[in-house]
Write a structure and sequence with these properties.
With 115 residues, the protein is mainly β. Helix content is 0%, strand content 52%.
């Protein structure tokens, strides 16, 4: 059964950094476009960043450009999101998504940015 497991969330002060990981199992990871989404309280889910199957191309929401970096290691079946200069408005549950023929989601990891 396909599993996507996020980790690395937590509480951080404004200006701090976190690195999220998404470990995938039971899927051909290198064929999937991978993305990070987030849902803040009272808001719609939004796309944060995505990366192509080979990692050759990325895209970011305007709100996180120059602060967040998405990457992947196909040998480890793992995707990452390096988040720097975090702001309170980055507070949300962050979800990992894998998309190719099918669409899979992780359970989410909470990121809270607060002093």
């Amino acid at each position: 059964q396909v599993q996507l497991v996020e980790s690395g969330g937590g509480l951080v002060q404004p200006g701090g950094s976190l690195r999220l990981s998404c470990a995938a199992s039971d899927l051909t990871f290198s064929r999937y476009r991978m993305s990070w989404y987030r849902r803040a309280p009272g808001k719609e889910r939004e796309l944060v960043a995505s990366i192509t199957s080979a990692g050759s191309s990325t895209n970011y929401a305007d709100s996180v450009k120059a602060r967040f970096t998405i990457s992947r290691d196909n040998a480890k079946n793992t995707m990452y999101l390096q988040m720097n200069s975090l702001k309170p408005e980055d507070t949300a549950v962050y979800y990992c998504n894998a998309r190719w023929i099918s669409d899979y989601w992780g359970q989410g990891t909470q990121v809270t940015v607060s002093s």
